[in-house]
Structure formats: C-alpha cells, structure tokens
C-alpha cells in the first residue's frame, strides 16, 4: 500500500471472532431474513468514532495553464487516507454545488448518503431478519468503506442518495437489429448512457452487410457505415458532461461479410492521422484536429468462434454468411483473415478479440439468449439490453501481519458486499426500459478485486510464476464461490431471479463447471492451500444450497479496471494488473510531493529472508535506478518477484495472458486487461497472443504495442535517456534559489529577420541571440506603424525579450503559446509550418525550429518538413547518421577525456507530477499513455483504458 498506516481498533480480536462464525451464521434466520453478525465493528461504538479525522484543502490546477480547475477548502477525511485519495473523492464524488451549504464536506456525508440508502432498501425489501441486523449491516459496510477495504463502482458514488436517477450500474450492453428504427434507437440509447457517465457495448452483426440487398432492391450500407454516425455522436456527447470521451465497444462476428472492412477501419484512420500530423495538423489526443478522423470513440472487437480458430490452425477456408438467410456468400482463407486482425492490432491496437464459444459455454442463461457483446472494457458479458453494477475489494487489506491471507475475513467481506450489490438493484434506475427489465429479471452483479499485483509482491510471488498464478486463482475462486453461495442463500429469502426457472439446468451446469475448475486447482504452498480449502467448501455450498433455492443472481463476478476507485482505496495496483513500477509519486499533506519506493518492497524483502541492512541497500538502489537488476545483495532468483508492467524487467506478454487464464475459470464474466507488447513486437507476436488466449480459455483479449498510436503525446525515449545523463538525480533534498539577474545582449549580436504570412496576414520577425548561442530578443512587426496592433506587438516583444534575458526558457514560451487559437489563422508561406492556429502559434513554432535542439523540439512534437518526411520513409525523425549517445560518451569532452560533472551548475530536473512521469525520468523510457485532459498530467494504463493519478479521470471506463 502507498499508506502503511492501518487502523488499530481491536481488529485482530474481531478477525478471530469473525473467523469463528460459520458460513451459515449469516444466512437465513428463522424470521425469514439475513441475520448479520459483527465482524469488523464493535457494538455500541460507531465506526466513525474509531478513527482520527482531519481537515484538508483540495485545490487542483492544470499544470500547463496554471488554471485552477477545482477548489474546495476544509474537507474532512481520516488521517490515514492519502492526499491523492481524498482529492479524487472530493473532486469526483462529493455532490452539491460548490460554495453552497448543500455541498458535501466530509467523507462521512458521502458514505452515509450511500450506505443508509442501501440499508433502507434492504429493510423495505425484506433482506434482514430484524432491525439489529439492518444496523449491523450499515455499520459493517461503513467500516469497510471507511478503511478502504472495498469500493462500489463510480455511478454509486455519483448517484445513490441524490435527487438524480439512482443509477448504480457502470456497464451496459445494448442491441441493434437490421432496421432503421433499431439503428436510430441505438444512437439515442447510447447518447443517454454517455450523458449519465457510463459506457455501453453492442454487436452489429444482425445488420446486413454491404454485399446484401435491401427489400427495395438497392444495396445495404453495412454496419461499418452506421458506425460513423454512432462515433460522431459519442464524440459529441462527453460522458457525464466531463471532458473525457465516451466509452463504447463495437463487436462484429468473424463470419460477417463486412468483417474485413470492420477490421481495417481504425488502422486506415491511424494512417490518416499520421498523414495529417505530418502536414502540421494537431492530431494529439484532445487536439482540435483529431475530431476530423473517424471511429476514435470506440473499442472494436472481433467475435471469433472455435470453428474459425480451428480453421486458422489448419490453414483452412472459412465462410462468411449472409445475415438474412445464413448462406455462405464468400469464402476466405481463415489464416489470412486472422493475420489481418493481428496486423490491424499491430498498427493501432484495434480490434481486440472475443472468443464466442468460450463465452457462451460459461453462460448461465442460454435459454433466454446468447451473449453477443460486452461492455467497453470487456469484463461484463451477458444478455443484450442488460447492465451490471460493480464493486471491488482491496486484496492487500486481507494480508495479515504474519504474511498469511485472511481467507475467512475475505469471505465475510464478500458476503456483505454481494448482499449490498443485490439490494441496489431493488431501488436502481436504468437508462432505458429494456435495460431495466432485463437487469431486474436477471440481477447481474460484478464483484471483483484490486491490488493483486501488490499482494503477490508482498507475499514473495512473481506475477509470472506458477505460485503467483495459483494464489490468484485460489483467491478468485473463493471470491466467486462465496458470492454465489450468498446468492443461493438470498434466493431462499427473497427469491431466485425471475429468469432462473427457465435457465435452471444451464445455471447449475455452469456452477458445476466452476466447482470442477476449483477441484482441478493444485496448491503449491501453504498460503494458497489455505485459501483453496475454503474455496472448495464455498463451492460445495454453492451447489448444495443452489439445488434447493436456486440463485438470486445470474452473474456474480468480473475483474474490472478499478481505475478511479482504485485510487479511492489507495491501491498500488489496479484490477488484475501487476505493479506499474517500483517507484511512486506521492503527494504530501499541506503541499509538496515525494518520490517513494513501493512500501510492498520492504515487506517482500523481509518475507524473502533479507536482513534489514540488505533490504535498505536494495531499496536505495531501486530509488535511484527504478529496477532491481544488479541491486546489492539481491539474489537473481528473486528478481521475478519485483517484475513490473514497465521497465527493465517488464513482464512478458504471455505472462499477462497466463495470469488471466489462471483467474478466468472462476469468474462469471471476463477480465478487463490489455496485454502490452514492446514497440519491436511483430505482427506474428500479436497473432500468437490472440491464439494462446483462445487455447488457454480466455473470454476476451486486447493488445497494445508501444507507440503504435499517434493520437497521444509521448516523450521520445532516446531523448529522455540522453537528458537523464545530463541531469542531477531526481530526488533533490535541498534547492538554493538565487535572485534572477538580467543578462543583457552585447551591442553587436547575431540576428536574423524573417518575413511570414499567416492566413493572409503578413509580418516580420527579428530575433537576436547571444554570441555563445541562445535566444535573447524578439521583435515583431505587424500592422501599420502607429496602429493599436503595432503598439501591442511592440509591447509584447519587449516583455518577451526582457524575460528571455532574465532566464525564462524559450521552451516555456513554446509550451504556452503553441496551439493558441485566434484569427488570423490558416495557411502560412513557411514550408516547415504549413498550418498555424494563430500568429502566436506560428511565431513560437518558428522560434523553436530556429533555436531549440532536436531533442528539445521532439519533446514538444515540433519537427521540420524534412524530419517529417524522413519519419514517413524510415519510421524515425532522427537523421540516418545519428547514433545513440551512451552515458559514458555524453560525459566526455571534445578531447575524449572524462568530464568532472560536479563543476557544472546542472539545472534541477523538471518536477514529476505523477508516477508515470517519475518513472520516465528515472528510467529514461517513455510511458505510452495520453495526457489527462483535465489536469494535464500523464495517465497510466488501467485495464483496457487509462486513468489519471492526479485527478482520477479515466480515458473512457467508468
């Protein structure tokens, strides 16, 4: 955990008391409701009275513009909550207008708003045996939320207990048929879901292809053409009124006649993005010109069958079938089509892949209909026109001080959480009537977890190891087994879900499949053996109680990205992901920040038997280098424990796939996760990942090859590495600030005069530099002498020139004034800058080209026409003769002698603002992720999307 503070309130005694209770003690009572007993709380004492509270000021700024984007003073949180967690909860989840008495000011108000609503609904709908059980339920939930043991998904915090519709679900699946009414209704329903801050997925395979006829005799448009309209709608309706894009998933069956067009849609657009970028257009994520390209607001996935995958293996032909009569209208080479899928994913990360037969083999409701699609992140897979509400447990909270996993306490937590999740369906509102009807009839839930990567590291398990996978599988089995056992108990109290009778045999068959998978699991150590033993007992209860009562819920578990709620729980890792990096960026109370080494690392070193002195040396090495390779005293066989998603010992792609395969048999739904591959990965590498995903029994898989997409601002790895060799260490204990002095230009200095034209407006720029290089003055002539415009430009020129002479870096001006948009704007007469959004945009791009080095310009994304042309031809902006500068070479002078770097007054490195940026500075490698559109910091991967560590925003997943 980022915070090592743990609440001390007799927790060990409560654990012992909770562990002594049988599973049946929280089941049905003779009164016909659940009798809840205390596990975490103390009778006669409210959970809020057990912790220390403090007041904090939450102020968020966009670091690029300096603009304050959020401010709320004197908010109340427990003292062991991190600054990041309290900031994200305040900005994202507190309700009420800022500056008014109705605005929530304390975590107490937020938790009470949600938990009291759940308790009241539980009482109203007959879930509890007596009032005492209802009160204990409220206190137990409150305690777990307060101590960050779990969190509901974001819509719960947004909506429950407010005047807004009580939407609790984050995941939606829609449906569309082969009619114009249905297609237009699809646009409408998606719009309402996006407006509410959630995402949706659907399968377009019912829409006839562009190779089939309409009833009128004309040719159909095909599903890809209708994707354009939906994409434009999604790009216009920002989720929940926020600045991030809408989240959506579009699926097409592999036997659809338009499948090749579907596969290539985003790859073709990616080529268009590259061409427009090289022509000078702003094609970064959030750039003004990115809206001119299509299909950028959805994740695309191809739904493949076992028949198709076997044809791929055999090199056989495969038939594409008409939508109306299912006849084969075209035959293709299966392997060639599969290679096209891999090639497109290599180019732009889309499409992902979903394994249809595997998905439907684990389907509990096949009599109602097949599963054809998923939510945007691919973890929720169920009936069309349905939804799922999610909650995730913080696994590291269940690790005892003796490094054993508290499986019994984990069971108790799952029982309470799954009960609350089912209660929420009783009072929930839904965006469409069809979704509401299906969800109330099938009551799909999605309990999951976060912090698996941190738990494995803390217990001395490598993420890509048999021990790590077995431990993860046992925990997942226990979670889902406990959830379904409670579901069966609830069915005996408030009834099975409405669709159960129709699907009883299929549902019980899937429960036996889960049980068989658990029975085939072979524990490796005592840690997973203890968890597996309780999982086996839980699945026995699932089958026996379910046989008598049926089940309350058609689905129980998924593994979601847990982006924003992961920060709320102060988790080091999200969902099923490994640790992102070994160093972290931590905000401090009262302002400031600190670079820290993950707190799980010292715990892991102790678990592995290292002395305190050796562990301290290893931690210091990690702080300086960001990895463990050659760390003093660390045995090489233990390196795998500290493998991460990024860095020198990044986990191999198939390591991620194998971990997903370990957990998948114990989940109702699927797993939100993207398998990252290095930039050097080949098309065949991606094809192999997709093939192994099918063989290992996954339900869905997405890949991402580093730097495959243009639409995101990235730091050049080589430039970062060179800069790393010049800079001081990132951690600077003391900085001496000196009064700035003006360095005037000599009487005679080099200068150049340039004429320019922007959008038809003509002008002149005179720039003067110091003899030892470096821009020192700029004068701009625009408009007639004596005019207001000329006077303003003269004053602006003087202000910029004086600031340059006082040491303000030119890079700062370039960052501030490029992309500034106002008239006149448009075409220029400069071959290096063909388009400018304003005169200021042109001026500072030109100054960057004239006075900044290639590496400095690369960081800003500014290149000459020659460099852009070279990138199109060779894939690199670097000149052909450029060679990577080694660290030893960069520290030599012209004579080849070693340079004493202490003689230089090296600048303090730019302050990192997130873990991603800190990781880049320490390792000299880039994190392939976009910048947050809210606060401007670099996001980091989370499941199938990205999440901002600074403000909690996501790139599309709720």
Question: How many domains in all?
Answer: 4
Unreliable parts = 1-31, 239-244, 712-738, 881-910
What structural class results from the helix and strand content? alpha/beta
- Count of strand segments: 23
Rg for CA atoms: 29 Å
Catalytic activity: a 2'-deoxyribonucleoside 5'-diphosphate + [thioredoxin]-disulfide + H2O = a ribonucleoside 5'-diphosphate + [thioredoxin]-dithiol
EC number: 1.17.4.1
Cofactor: adenosylcob(III)alamin
Organism: Microlunatus ginsengisoli
Descriptive overview:
- The protein is an alpha/beta fold.
- Helices cover 40% and strands 14% of the residues.
- Strands 3, 4, 5, 6, 7, 10, 11, 12, 15 and 16 form a ten-stranded mixed sheet that branches. It has a three-stranded antiparallel sheet with strand order 17-18-19.
- Helix 4 (131-146) packs across helix 12 (407-427), helix 15 runs parallel beside helix 17 (526-549) and helix 15 (466-494) runs parallel beside helix 21 (653-663).
- The two termini are 23 Å apart.
- The relative contact order is 0.10.
Topology:
Layout: H1 11-20, E1 53-61, E2 68-78, H2 83-92, H3 107-124, H4 131-146, E3 150-152, H5 154-159, E4 171-173, H6 180-195, E5 199-203, H7 223-236, E6 248-253, H8 259-278, E7 299-304, H9 306-314, E8 317-321, E9 328-333, H10 334-348, E10 352-355, H11 356-361, E11 386-394, H12 407-427, H13 433-442, E12 445-450, H14 452-458, H15 466-494, H16 500-519, H17 526-549, H18 563-568, E13 583-587, E14 593-597, H19 600-607, H20 612-625, H21 653-663, E15 674-677, H22 683-695, E16 700-705, H23 717-726, E17 751-758, E18 761-769, E19 775-781, H24 788-805, H25 810-817, E20 826-830, E21 833-836, H26 839-851, H27 854-860, H28 865-874, H29 887-890, H30 915-923, E22 940-942, E23 945-947
Parallel strand pairs: 4-5, 5-6, 6-7, 7-10, 11-12, 15-16
Antiparallel strand pairs: 1-2, 3-11, 4-11, 8-9, 10-16, 13-14, 17-18, 18-19, 20-21, 22-23
